[in-house]
Design a protein that fits this description.
Shape: globular
CATH architecture: Sandwich
CATH superfamily: Carboxypeptidase-like, regulatory domain
CATH topology: Immunoglobulin-like
Keywords: Signal
Oligomer: single chain
Number of strands: 11
Number of helices: 2
Order of helices and strands: HEEEHEEEEEEEE
Largest sheet: 7 strands, antiparallel
Helix content: 10-25%
Radius of gyration: 17 Å
Length: about 180
Amino acid sequence: MTRFRFPALAAAMLASAAMVPSARAAVYGDAPACAAGSTTPALLVWLDGLKDRKGRIRVELFPSNDKDFLEDDFVLQKAGKDFRRIEFAAPAAGPIAVCIRAPRPGRYSFAMIHDRDGKHKFSFSSDGIGFPGNPKLGWSKPKSAKAAVTLGSGVTEMHVMMNYFHGLGFSPVKKD
C-alpha cells in the first residue's frame, strides 16, 4: 500500500483520477472533449436526482450575465453570443454523464433540463431543472451568478441535482 506524505499531492491525484468518466457510464454529448488529457474547455456533468427516465435531457451553456441567462438560443446566436446545447433521449438506466464543450475558457451560466414530455417547452408542472450549486428555486429563474461555472483549459467536472415542482417551489425528488 502506498502512503502519501503530502496530503495536497494525494488530493490532487485523486481529483485528477475522478475527472475520467467511469468505464460503466456512457458519456453523452461532446464525449471526446472530456476524454482524459483533453485541453478543450469542457464541462463534464453527472446528473443526479432524475425523477424518471421519460423524455429528453437538455444541457445548455449561456453567457454569464442575467440578461443572457436562459435567453432564447435564436436571440443569442443572432447576437453572436456564446451558447452551446446538448440534447438527447433520457437513457433507460444507468448513471448519466454529459460532456458539453465550451467555446473558450471563461465563466458561463449553466442549466440542465429534464423535458419529460419532449415538447421542447419548459412545463412547471412536470419538467425538472438543475443548476450548479443547486440554488434554491422559487417562481423565478435564479441569478446567473448562482448558476455559473468557470471553465479553464481542460475538463471541469461537477454533479447537478435535478429539481421538480412540489407545493410552492422546486426541490429535489424525495426517494423512499
